[in-house]
User: Fold this.
Amino acid sequence: MKYLGSSRYSSIYCDTHIHTRLCGHALGEMEEYVLASLKRGLMHIVFLEHMEEGIITPKTSWLSEKDFDYYFEEGRRLQEKYRDKIEIGLGVECGYNPDCKDVLLERINSRNWDLIGISCHFQKIEGDQYHFNLLSKNPDTLKRAVQLDTAALFSKYLDTLLEAIDVINGSMLCHLDAPFRWLPSHTLSNHHYQKIDHLLGRAAAKNLALEINTSGIAIRNEAFPNKRILEMASKHQMTFQLGSDAHKPEDVGNHFKLFS
Ligand SMILES: [Zn+2]
Ligand SMILES: [Zn+2]
Assistant:
C-alpha cells in the first residue's frame, strides 16, 4: 500500500467518505450504501455527511440538525444489524465557514462523531446574492467562475482551510485540490503549492489525515489531491485515508484497487 499510512482507517477495504440522500444531492438510503459496500468487499465504511452553517444558496445541499438526528438513529440501527459483517462509522464533513465558526463548533461538539472531515465548499463573493459553490458543475456557477479571479479564490480557500484546522478538532482533510474541478482553465501556481505545503505542515502537526478522494479519477484521471500534493504530504509524514465521496450506492470503494 504505497500511499496508505498506519491509522485504523488506512486500508483499501475502508471507505471513509460516503454520502446519502439525506444531503439532498445524493441518491440512496444509508442501508443501500451498506449493502453496496458489502458487495464490494469493504470491511469498514464511514458515512461523512455534509454540515454547513450560514451558507446562502438557492437550494440546500447539507443536513439539518433534524436530519442528523435521523442519521444517528438509522446509523446506530445499521451498526447493530450488520455488526458481524462490516464496521460502520458515523462521521461529518464539516464545510468550514469563518463567519459561523462558533455555531459550527457548537454543532460539532454536540455529537459523538467517528470521524470529522474538514472541507470548504463555499465562498462569499462581495456583491453576489448567493455563496459561490467552489465544487459545483452547475452551468450558471461555471459561467460565474470564469468572471472571477479563480487563482485568488483558491488562495482564499486555502487560507480558510488553514483557519478551519485550527478551529475545529478534525480528523481528515477532504478533497484538498477539488475546487474548480469542472473548470479546465484552472491550474495551481507555485504560490498555491507553497500555501498547500504550509497547510499540510500544520495539518500534520495536528495529526490530521489527508483524504485520497477517488472521485477525482473519473473527472481528471487523478484522485484529489494530485500526486504532487500527495508527495508533499508524505514528506510531512501525514497519514492517508481513502474516500470515494460516493453520492450513489454503486460508487462506494470506487478505484480503491489503484492504491493497493
Ligand atoms: Zn456532496
Ligand atoms: Zn466535499
The two ends are 5 Å apart (CA to CA). The domain at 14-259 is CATH 3.20.20.140 (TIM Barrel).
